[in-house]
Amino acid sequence: MGLLDRLRRRTTGDPRRTDGPQMAVDRAAVKAHLKEFADTRRGVEGYVEPATNVSAESLILIATDGEWTRRAVGSRKAAFELAQSLGIPVYDVLLTGYPGRMREWNTRQRKKGG
Fold it and tell me: Domain limits of the chain?
């Protein structure tokens, strides 16, 4: 398959196309990690991230202070269901973007480490 074929397939909604790499997700471990994060931080919100060529669909949790954690969840539906089961608001990052507090937290962490 040539480059143009791959690009064409990507834009036409070919059912053979997969969104990101196929990977097994240990749902219990993912839920336990995200639950611990949500339970020990204030104001946690979830953001569903689309799959890329190198990562599967994921859920990122961001606390009020901007601290964050990300875990692959396997599908968009699973991401929304998981966030709802944790009792936190959940958004599609393609519609909302990342909150500024996340970038600010990343900047503070870089300054601490450097």
Answer: 20-113
Question: What is the three-class DSSP state of 91?
Answer: strand
Coil, helix or strand at residue 114: coil
Give residue 44's Cα distance to chain centre: 14
Q: What is the pLDDT of residue 78?
A: 94
Rounded distance between C-alpha atoms, residue 83 and residue 87, angstroms: 6
DSSP string, 16-80: T--SS------HHHHHHHHHHHHHTSSS-EEEEE---SSS--EEEEE-TTS-EEEEE-SSHHHHH
Kindly state the DSSP code that residue 98 receives in the 8-state scheme: -
Confidence of residue 87 (pLDDT cuts 50, 70, 90): very high
Does residue 83 contact residue 59 with C-beta atoms inside 8 Å? yes
- Residue 18 CA to residue 49 CA, distance in Å, equals 15
